[in-house]
Design a protein that fits this description.
The chain is 62% helix and 4% strand. The protein is mainly alpha-helical. It has one domain. A three-stranded antiparallel beta sheet has the order 1-2-3. α2 packs across α13 and α11 packs antiparallel against α12.
């Protein structure tokens, strides 16, 4: 998919970003309505086990066809129900949607971006909230000479201080977001298990598998353990060569669509890699490839899409 997107005109990539965003927002609206309804009335669904580690932890997944609901609360792995849409967990939904909102330049006059914001808030994902803040500040720093950057920082600081002080920090945002940002239970920095981190250290100490990484069968052998999802996991599996090629590919895409905001979006993607090593997932790289050409233009997204629609009809 990445090769196909990179071989089409920039205008078409922007057009595809708009269409992807519109259809995804429609699916999210349906999913959110169904999710809220399932708290009030019973809805038809099927149940299954997520994976071996989830099974061992007593976590099951209910598929309501329009959305999924993992029983993290019942299993004691979470303190509240969080919206996860059609994805495996709320963090997946939150980060993917945050990237789409970032690549759509937070244009809240477009309804789909408001839907994205609501979705991110309902996911109660610490990673998504951090991406939201970093993306918003990057946009304000990049546009109009950065004159809105200081007010944006002040707004973010006020919001953070409010939730840190409200009820002594014992509130939804304080418990679910700030606590996750400052710690990761059972993990070493970047959401990586102790077992994976030990392999990472051993690779550097001995030089074994350092270039190409460990066998892909490693995750199968460790399926009963929550190995994590941070960048160190990717490095252990792919080594210096695989990790380097992935990061260079992202830089190459930016280099061919340079813009001030695009540079900070590139940095945000690299930062996110440390916490969730999914840069090779099409749900992550598609908004990036389609969004970077849009950042180069001076006209609005709607004007670019309207112009291309006219061209395609000719």
């Amino acid at each position: 998919m990445a090769v196909v997107l990179l071989n089409v005109k920039s205008e078409i990539r922007v057009f595809l970003l708009q269409k992807l965003s519109s259809w995804y927002a429609i699916l999210l609206v349906i999913a959110i309505i169904a999710w809220l309804l399932h708290f009030v009335i019973p809805l038809p669904h099927t149940s299954s086990v997520g994976d071996a580690w989830w099974d061992a932890s007593g976590i099951r997944v209910d598929n309501y066809f329009f959305f999924k609901e993992a029983d993290f609360v019942e299993a004691g792995a979470d303190t509240m129900h969080r919206f996860q849409g059609m994805f495996k967990e709320p963090g997946h939904l939150g980060t993917i949607t945050a990237f789409l909102l970032i690549c759509n330049r937070f244009e809240f006059h477009r309804m789909e971006n408001l839907v994205f914001l609501i979705t991110i808030l309902l996911s109660v994902s610490a990673a998504a909230y951090v991406l939201l803040v970093l993306g918003y500040l990057s946009l304000k720093f990049s546009e109009q000479g950065g004159k809105h950057f200081i007010p944006a920082i002040l707004l973010v600081v006020v919001v953070i201080l409010f939730f840190l002080s409200y009820n002594g920090g014992e509130n939804l945002v304080g418990n679910m977001i700030f606590s996750k940002v400052t710690r990761e239970e059972g993990a070493v920095g970047g959401r990586v298990s102790l077992a994976i981190y030990a392999l990472f250290e051993n690779m550097w100490a001995t030089g074994n598998d350092l270039l190409l990484g460990k066998s892909q069968n490693l995750l199968i052998e460790m399926e009963d353990e929550n190995v994590g999802a941070g960048g160190i996991v990717y490095f252990v599996l792919h080594g210096i060569l695989g990790t380097g090629i992935l990061l260079l590919a992202y830089f190459w895409v930016y280099k061919n669509c340079k813009s001030r905001y695009g540079f900070w979006v590139f940095i945000i993607y690299i930062i996110s890699f440390w916490q969730r090593s999914y840069l090779d997932w099409d749900a992550f790289y598609m908004p990036y490839i389609m969004g970077l050409p849009y950042f180069m233009g001076s006209v609005s997204h709607g004007q670019q899409v309207k112009k291309l629609s006219i061209q395609l009809r000719k």
